Each structure stands twice: as structure tokens, then as C-alpha cells.
């Protein structure tokens, strides 16, 4: 086994004392594998991995006061827990569970090694200023499809709060506890495997606030899980086309998925309730922009439209609210 994956205890002797363990990690637990990696580019962990977080109580994603990012996934080799921290320009990672080696092998890809921002040329002062302020933004690539597809389906046509609640309840109830140590009281869980999703009773979908249409779409997706996971190795447009073969998965859902699973720099999200107005307001002072106008405004960024959209969202220039938030739904009994 490579020395970069050498087991490391959670406490070691340094100058006659002990190193501090990460906040919330039980001292009696021993790390499984670890790796260090020095990225050849500026890296901001929060900006890069932030899109993987589905709400502040996401059971598969946590941040801790010491600056670490914790992530739990069902990898091709089984469940895994990953802790990543950035210290003096070096990424320090630890992983636990059957998926630990896969997690550490994929670490550079997850943190944007394959992302190439060089072709991106800002065409608006706002975009250029944000790019200068956010040099550590990289587009993550998880190489996992279902873990981004299922929460994206849950987010269809409902408020983000409703979708986050559904994801949290379903993962905690039907997933499994994350392997290894996790932040204290975080209750981190691995997403259910495809067969488990398929066996969730109808009343449990209802209790989580998920209507028949979204539940049925998830069931169709997990029935073709292996075929969909293959999309992570495809070109983004081909990956989206494969996802959209599943009834209930359209351009909005496929774009939201491949942005994360494939690190797709041009997968712009269409069909969103708020994004066209934000892009329109930021680039043309047009808060009433629709998808067609948004795509027109993003034309100079062809090939990098998702990156441009991320920078615009990070700029903080959003239209003042003039309508109430989208009302929460009240689904019919399943």
C-alpha cells in the first residue's frame, strides 16, 4: 500500500505533547487512511465543495470550526467518510470505511484538478471583479451521479427548505450511519443504496413531503442506477441526455446533477424560478429576464456558462425581493 495511505492515529506525540484531534472527533477512534495533496492552483474548500451541501443539516455534509469539510458518500467500493482540511496550501485528508481508498484516489478530482478555468474570459466588469476576489473557486467533480440526482429530483417545483427536509429525513431513516468518526452530534449518514430507495413505503415518502411524481421519478432512476452512474464518465451533454431518458428528469434536473457529478463548466441551469432574474439583473439590470434572455446574456461565456453563473451568484448582486417566497406545498396523500 502506498505510504500516502498509511494509517494514522488520531493522537500522536509532538514535542512531548499531543496534537489536537479535529473538533468533535472521538479520541478512541483511529483513522483508516490518510493522504496529503498540494494543489497546483488556488483552492477555496468552501466555494469548491459548497454545492454538494443540501441545507445546513445535510446528513451527508458537514463543516467544523477547525475549517474541515466532512463528506459521506456511497462510493463504487462501498460507504465512505472523508474529512478534508486545507493547511498552508496543502490539503490534508482522512477517510474511513470501505470507500476510503476510492475517496482518497479521487481527492484531486473532487477538488478541481480536472477543472480548467483558463478558457474563461470575463466579459462584464461584475464577473471580472468577482473572479479576482474568488481565485480559489474550482468546479468540483464527484464522479458519482445518484447522490446528486436524487436530491435534485427532490428539489423539483418545491422550496429549498422542503427539499432539504425531505433529503434529511429520508437519508437519516433509510441510510446507514457514516463509517468512522464524524463531528460530534452531526448524525452523518450514508445515502441509501438503490434497492433501499426502491423499497421505501409510500407513506414514508408522504411523511417526508415528497409527492407521487417526484417519488416515482426517483424510483425509475434507482431502477437504472448502474446505467446512470456510467454517465459520470461521459461528456456532460451526453451525460445529460442519458439522465433525461428517465421520465421526470428534464434539463433543470440533469444540469444540476452533471454540474456536480461531471464538473460541467457549461451546464447552465434552465427552468429555474430565480436564476434568470438574477443573471438578468446582474448583467443587464433586467430582473424580469426569462430563460431565453438569460441564455442570450450568457452567450459570451459559451462553454463556461455554469462558471459564469456561479461567479454572478457569488457577486452578491441580486434583485431586491418584490414577491413573497414560493409557498410551501401541501401534497395530497400518497
Automatic annotation (TrEMBL):
- GO molecular function terms noted in the UniProt entry: alkylated DNA binding; DNA-3-methyladenine glycosylase activity; DNA-7-methylguanine glycosylase activity
BP GO annotations = base-excision repair, AP site formation; DNA alkylation repair
Against InterPro entries, the record matches this protein to: Alkylbase_DNA_Glycosylase/TA (IPR051912), DNA_glycosylase (IPR011257)
Region entry Disordered, spans: 1-39, 315-334
Q: Which Gene3D superfamilies match?
A: Hypothetical protein, domain 2
> What cellular component terms from Gene Ontology apply here?
cytoplasm; protein-DNA complex
What keywords is this UniProt entry annotated with? DNA damage, DNA repair
Tell me what this protein is called: 3-methyladenine DNA glycosylase
- Can you name the source organism? Streptomyces formicae
